[in-house]
Amino acid sequence: MIVVHHLQNSRSQRILWMLEELGVEYSVKRYERDPESQLAPPELLKVHALGKSPVITDGDNVVAESGAIVEYLARVHGNGRMAPEVGSNDYNQYIYWLHYAEGSLMTPLLLRLVFVRIKTTKMPFFVKPIANGIADKVLASFVTPNIKRHMEFVDQHLEGREWFAGDQLSGADIQMSFPLEATLARIPALQKHKNVVDFVRRVQARDAYKQALETGGAYDYA
Ligand SMILES: N[C@@H](CCC(=O)N[C@@H](CS)C(=O)NCC(=O)O)C(=O)O
Predict the structure, then answer these.
(1) Closest by alpha carbon to 183, among 147, 222, 154, 217?
(2) Where in the chain is the domain with CATH 1.20.1050.10?
(3) Domain formed by 89-206, architecture
(4) What is the distance between the alpha carbons of residues 18 and 82, in angstroms, rounded to a whole number?
(5) 38 Rama sector, left if φ>0, alpha if ψ -120 to 50, beta otherwise
(6) Which regions in the chain score pLDDT beneath 50?
(7) Residues 151 and 190 sit within 8 Å (Cβ to Cβ)
(8) For 26-67, how does the pLDDT look when each residue is reduced to its tens digit (9 = 90+)?
């Protein structure tokens, strides 16, 4: 039986969605974030050396890294679903977006999270203007322009398309859902990208997605 080690309000929500789309049996072990640091609890270190979520166990297999988990689930439990045919053009697209989500798109989003947090962190009054100045500079010169460029790129790709790789839902859509949901929720100005907004709406309207939300519990971006 597949066990999803699910951290509240996290990327592992999309693994629950993937499993619901596949309709395979699984169980969920829940972990709560530390309320102060938002970090995962130490028990997750017993499942995988990095102590991050998502991670799944499937018999003796321990699979970490959400892209690798999505790819594993499609390959081992998909019976031809959730991934295009190997060797097809759609398959190349599938691999691209599967990796792009964490490998490229998440980077400026995480940087934004860090620098916005610096601006809201308590610190001695004489340090605050310097810290804010550095954070504002990095956000304006590097982080925000990068996020905008990525969103334009993704929006263009989705023009005239329902899904990221071919005309069927695939693991690429599962991977892309989290960074896009997070971006639209955190930066409302980027909701001007209608193809991205429509994609997220299509995702969130699916029965499997809704079922995964019920299973996973609180999730800020739905
Ligand atoms: N690239 C990894 C990122 C894993 C990751 O950073 N997960 C976050 C949850 S969204 C986490 O476990 N955070 C808690 C911590 O770092 O302690 C993946 O996609 O699986």
Answers:
(1) 147
(2) 89-206
(3) Up-down Bundle (1.20)
(4) 8
(5) left
(6) none
(7) yes
(8) 999 999 999 988 999 999 999 999 999 999 999 999 999 999
Q: How far is the CA of 146 from the centre of ligand 1 (A)?
A: 21
Q: Is the pTM of this model over 0.90?
A: yes
Which helix (DSSP H) or strand (DSSP E) does residue 70 occupy? Answer: helix 66-77
The residue type at 74:
A
The Cα–Cα gap between 187 and 137 comes to 18
> At the fourth CATH level, which superfamily is domain 2-83+212-216?
Glutaredoxin (3.40.30.10)
Residue of 7, 11, 109 with the most ligand 1 atoms within 8 Å of its CB, for mutation: 11
Reported as type and span, the H/E element at residue 29 is strand 26-31
Whether 19 and 212 have beta carbons less than 8 Å apart is answered as yes
Distance 42 CA to ligand 1 centre (A): 13
What's the CA-to-centroid distance between 66 and ligand 1, angstroms?
A: 9
Specify the residue for token string 């005239």.
160
